[in-house]
């Protein structure tokens, strides 16, 4: 699997470079702009959309679940464990890597021993894990939608004037645009790939993919670089 993933990267690089060389500078730069905008739009709006979705569609249900646990009249440690179990569906990728101060049972026990609206306070503790999950999934959805809309818009509405360039210069500039498109593509791929594996339940196939990434040489380096960039982005939101 690792060799296959490395082969896919080599093929992808070759494809982007060949298309850039073939299409030339102007057509390639339009494609590059589309890809950059497909990242920029979700970069700006995914956190806002995630926050909106959390407040309007998640928070109420989360509070109900927390209150149901609190109303079970179990001992305080059991209640704390049951509340933490609400995060079981949040991938460990977030809890271990993205939460600056990961919620633990002591945090929950401290709230349970305090006064005030316990359910609301606990929800605030759990919120970062949930928000970061929603942000990544929203990022992937917005990236896909933005790319499709812009691709159609540029294809059917924008007519660029033909500006002749000396053939070899046009091809070389197109080649450079192809390389930049591959860089942006890898980030988009990382976002969509991670989101897909968070939405799809863990299976033997997903475990095989993760093992393949660990065994790969080229793919693993590029993937981890983009994953670090994604982590930095989510830490800021």
What can you tell me about this protein's structure?
With 237 residues, the protein is mainly alpha-helical. The protein has one domain (2-235). Helix content is 82%, strand content 0%. It contains eight helices and no strands. The chain has helices spanning 2-70, 76-84, 92-97, 105-112, 118-156, 167-199, 204-215, 218-235. Helix 1 (2-70) crosses helix 7 (204-215), helix 1 packs parallel to helix 8 (218-235) and helix 4 packs across helix 5.
Write a compact overview of the structure shown.
The chain is an all-alpha fold.
Mean pLDDT figure: 82
Global morphology: elongated
Number of helical regions: 8
| Distance from first to last alpha carbon | 34 Å
Tally of structural domains: 1
The main sheet comes to: none
Percentage of β-strand residues: under 5%
SSE pattern, N- to C-terminal: HHHHHHHH
| Helix-strand category | mainly alpha
User: Percent range for helical residues?
Assistant: over 70%
Low-confidence segments: 91-101
Radius of gyration: 23 Å
| β-strand number | 0
Question: Which keywords apply here?
Answer:
237 residues, mainly alpha, 8 helices
Strand and helix layout:
Elements: H1 2-70, H2 76-84, H3 92-97, H4 105-112, H5 118-156, H6 167-199, H7 204-215, H8 218-235
Helix pairs in contact: 1-5, 1-6, 1-7, 1-8, 2-4, 4-5, 5-6, 6-8
